[in-house]
């Protein structure tokens, strides 16, 4: 068994429910009591999104093959 990262947990929970058919969705984490606080903090804490896009803007534009 391995611990899931926050991105995996959010991906799984994000797929719970079908927006066109369901009003809500449910996700369940089955873990040991020792890991419970870890997963709760992952789901309730918000972390800032850090982008490095602007640092590589020229490379990204060149990759698009714009004339």
UniProtKB/TrEMBL annotation:
<dbReference type="InterPro" id="IPR050474">
    <property type="entry name" value="Hel308_SKI2-like"/>
</dbReference>
<keyword id="KW-0378">Hydrolase</keyword>
<keyword id="KW-0067">ATP-binding</keyword>
<dbReference type="GO" id="GO:0016787">
    <property type="term" value="F:hydrolase activity"/>
</dbReference>
<protein>
    <submittedName>
        <fullName>Activating signal cointegrator 1 complex subunit 3</fullName>
    </submittedName>
</protein>
<dbReference type="GO" id="GO:0004386">
    <property type="term" value="F:helicase activity"/>
</dbReference>
<dbReference type="InterPro" id="IPR027417">
    <property type="entry name" value="P-loop_NTPase"/>
</dbReference>
<keyword id="KW-0347">Helicase</keyword>
<keyword id="KW-0547">Nucleotide-binding</keyword>
<dbReference type="GO" id="GO:0005524">
    <property type="term" value="F:ATP binding"/>
</dbReference>
């Amino acid at each position: 068994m391995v611990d899931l990262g926050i991105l995996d947990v959010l991906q799984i929970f994000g797929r719970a429910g079908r927006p066109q058919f369901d009003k809500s969705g449910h996700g369940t984490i089955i873990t040991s009591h020792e890991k419970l606080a870890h997963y709760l903090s992952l789901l309730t804490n918000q972390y800032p999104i850090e982008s490095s896009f602007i640092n590589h803007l020229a490379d990204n534009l060149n990759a698009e093959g714009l004339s």
